[in-house]
Amino acid sequence: MWIVLFEPTFFEPPATHWLWQLASHLTFTHSFWPLTYASIDGVNWTLALEMQFYVAIALLIPWLARTRGSHIWFWCILIAWGWRAAMYRFYGGHEPVRLFMRVMQLPGALDEFGAGIFLAKLMDRRPDAGPIAALGGRSRRSSLGP
């Protein structure tokens, strides 16, 4: 709907252009290429990052379930900062938009996502953790018996 209302020239030839745009946005891979990065609705580039994170989480569930939150956050920080350093090395001389685009790919934002995982695991480890306990109800421990 956004395209029809606010981008009336979107479907002008060549068809390969708008097909590429639609395909990359529907697969949430539009953040990978400068041509599609923020092309339809600029702020929606973050949706690609979020969906890529969800796929990564789904693939890493066994590791995440058995690993301490602090270790997960440590590895996320290490990967993110390493990614940012590499992107700065390769794209630091380019225009700031291109550097930002490269730095903010999923590996570069892992420290932020890792902080969320760490906090979620920290809250889950408390003796009174649980959705009911957070609202002032019974805790998981008390619901298991004496």
Explain what this protein looks like in three dimensions.
The protein has 146 residues and is an all-alpha fold. The protein has a domain at 67-134. It is 66% helix and 0% strand. The protein is built from eight helices and no strands. Helix 3 (45-66) crosses helix 6, helix 4 packs antiparallel against helix 5 and helix 4 (69-91) runs antiparallel to helix 6 (106-124). Residues 132-146 have low confidence and may be disordered.
Order of helices and strands: HHHHHHHH
Spatial gap, N to C terminus: 57 Å
SS class: mainly alpha
What is the CA-atom radius of gyration, in angstroms?
21 Å
Count of DSSP H/I helices: 8
The total beta strand count reads: 0
The helix content is 55-70%
Overall average residue pLDDT: 82
Largest sheet descriptor: none
The unreliable regions are: 132-146
Shape: globular
Proportion of beta-strand residues: under 5%
